[in-house]
Amino acid sequence: MADNSLDDIVLGRIYRDDLEENVAKYVLRALDGTLDEFIEGDSDKKQPSRPATPQSPAGANLRRVSVTGFRGIGPPADLDVVPGPGLTLVVGANGTGKSSFAEGLEFLLTGRNSRWQDKSAEWRHGWRNLHAQDPPELQAVFAVDGKTEETLVSRRWHSTDATRIEDHALEGLDALEWASALETHRPFLSYDQLSDIVEKGPSARFDAMAAGLGLERLTDARERLRHQRLTDQRMLREAQQELDRFQADLDALDDERGRAVRTALENEPWDLEAVILVLEGVLGEDADRPLNLLRRLTTLDFPSAEDIEECCRKLREVHTELQEFKGSNAARAALLQSALEVALLVHKYEGDQPCPVCGEGSLDDHWKVATVERTFDLADEWVHATRMSVQLSDAFDRVGELCKPMPDWLSNAGQVGIDASAVTQAWNWWSRALTDEPGLPRVETRDVDEFGLPWHEKIPKNRPVVRIRLDEVDQPKTQEADQPKTQKVDQPKFQWGMDIGADFAFINTLTDQGMLEVAGRLTERGAQVRTALESLRERAGNELDRRENQWRPLRRQLLEWLPVARRGQRAATRMAPTQAAADWLANVEDDVRAERFRPIADRARRFWETMGKGSSVALDDLTLAGQANRRHLDIATSVDGRNTPALAVMSQGELNALSLSLFLARALLPESPFRFLVIDDPVQAMDPTKVEGLARVLAEAAEERQVIVFTHDERLSATVHRLRIEHKLLAVTRHENSQVQCQPVQEPVRRHLGDARAVWLTDPLDDNTRQRVIPGFCRQALEAACVEAVWRARTSAGCDYARTEQDVTHAQTLNDKLKLVLLDDLNGNHQDMRNALYQRFGTRARDVVDACNRGAHGHWRGGMDGLIDGTEWLAKRILTQVAP
Amino acid sequence: MTPELMVESRSLLDAPPSSHPGLWERAAILLARQALEESLDDFWLARSPDLLHASMRAQLLCLGPLMNNDHDAAQVAQLWGALSDACHFNTYQPTPSPSEVHTWLDQTECFCALLARKAGRTVAHT
Questions:
Q1: Which of A490, A509, A528 is the last residue of a domain?
Q2: Predicted-complex ipTM score
Q3: What domain range is A16 assigned to?
Q4: Helix (H, G, I), strand (E, B) or coil at A243
Q5: Are A215 and A593 in contact (CB under 8 A)?
Q6: Are A752 and B34 in contact (CB < 8 Å)?
Q7: Which residue in chain A has the smallest CA separation from B101?
Q8: Closest Cα in chain A, distance from residue B30 (Å)
């Protein structure tokens, strides 16, 4: 069957079944043999390269089989057959070597022989004929379609004493490209195989029948899918097994990586992308995740001792300077400068006058010069004070920066098994360094504006407004238990402080003593935090290391496992569609097989019915059923309308007929390149009606094929002749030293007359011999004519076949046979027969019969040529007049 | 007479004319059967001329008592049957193989001689 039609069928079925696209893809790829590329490249772009549809080999007819030194044949022997459809019977007694032609041809083409293939060594070693003078050789000549010259195939052994059947040279066979056709359309059937076909196991019977239906591509495709599925299963199993190897380690890993990987691998299909993210360290942005926490713990920042010391130094410096400031009455100078400037303004506007403050001195030019000088000095003091203010502000900014509160996530450290309480406590204490009360000397602010200076707004803008504060110092009342001990400072009740201008918002409320206190606290509390923190970092680091050590080997394993897993995962995704594709294909294959087997089954049934005429067993149906190792050829038979297992009720002859029917129906498939069929010994164990059926079946086959039948049983050739089936008859005879001859045989009347004539015409023979031999042959010619006439008459009258055969067999003598022809009664009266002979054909007929009968025993003398002519005349009359 | 037919029969088998292979075996059988029948005729002539014209079936039945050897008689009957079959047209009878023909001729020679001895005459070979 053409492969294209298979594609059409599959495509049609895909459409009809509305096959899922993914599954259909696998079906088509498997069918095209591009499954591997599809899977490896998963490329839809790549157009499947369809394997070239194999050209079916040209048909061939057989012309000649030549056998030398093989089996029963010694010196070279040829079997010539006429190419083209037709029936050729090769007849010969057992042991004449006729089967050697059949076996020789089979071995020539297949290198095997079904008859001795499974037999003992003795059988196999007996292949060589010991009478051969020449090295063994098998040769066949074929007429191949489309070729004008003959095609020769040969196997030649090198010497006459070749023992091994393998040691030969084969020529000409490869060019015919018959290798697969010989498997699927075997053109040979021997008697041994005849029983094989039905007696083999059910699956062998199935295979024998299903071969050659052109389903190989479907079967191959299904096999590819099956193989793919097995491979996929293996790959998935490998991935699973490898995972099993480190599953315990994975279960033991108690962190989010372990958890994430476990979650990803908990169910199939695995979330390998999630695993990859874990392996790449991407675990999401959640800061609370243990590893992040641990990592942050190990790098938790805190001001260094140097930073703190620097900050404290600044505070102390400011403190010292404030002390100096206080000592130099800089604040007072600022105030004084303001007072003097006010006085100068008074003097400027009101002129010389007595001092409005003391009332004793006077404000005059002299005073003015001295006072202006003095305001400059006081301004210097004021600038100093301003600078102080800035320094103070900076120092406290710095403290503020240092004393950042503890990060809130630190409180989660317990989640990763890290006890951070020491740090938390110390840090909280640290962060309260500026705020912890009591213990800090603080000032109370009173704005100088309270004094309500009248020239306030007349002070030039670029000049600072000096406000004087009166600082009241709070004394610490109690000491709280959880607070680090503070140095108790003896504080003055009031303190000069200052706030200079709007640009300098010095809002420190600490006394300079308070600053020293803060500096002390920073050093002390900072050290405590750092100590606690050091331990915390170490513990967090250890925990991190522990987890890393647990993780690292697992990570390596996961990395190694990933490609395997990915492969397995991909394999797993293919398993469902490949399975579905294989199942679907199996169904299609079943359907196509059934459809294509149907005509074979029908034909086989018809053949069997022809051969099994008169059998009580009816062959109802033949179907190829089941799959895989349950496949079988279902032979449905019934006896008298009741279903019965075929093989149990059929006789050997019926089984042979069934086998032959199956063989012929298959061998006649138009796809077979073999225009010839070789059947060896099909008649055995058949009763007469079956032989007749066989002849009819062979005749039908011979309409299409060159059918060559070897038989030792004359019944077949007789039946074929009797049924007037067009055929060629060849007789195989074996002479001394395995000399085998195969010659055409004429139909019996012609042959016996030919014998008689040949004796008459052969020179070196003496007359006495002629006299004694020729009448014998003439009598046989007449007998043959009688038998043929009986058959013709009885067949056309629809007489019982078996009775006819029985009558003919029992009619031994010419007289008996004449009784059958003339009286239709074997036991008829002799004289009635003679009268009938006379009445039908006249005196000459009676004379010829008498001459033959007497002469056969040497009791007649007369003209031999006249006898032969008379015999021919009478034979023709019997055949034409009795049964035209 | 008898030996002549047998000699001729033998020579057809052993040294046949070159033409028509296979034919001469069949001719040899025809001759052999006639040789056997003539030996029987001679036997009856010598021992019981009444039987000369009896049917072959009757002749073969009477052969045992007259030869005084049922075994030999049965063998003669068997041989004659085989030769006779070969000399008649029989649908299902395969052409005898050369070795079969050889055996028949051997047997015929043997029984012709035996019958001649039993007939009280020795066979003069040429």
A1: A509
A2: 0.90
A3: 3-41
A4: helix
A5: yes
A6: no
A7: A735
A8: 6
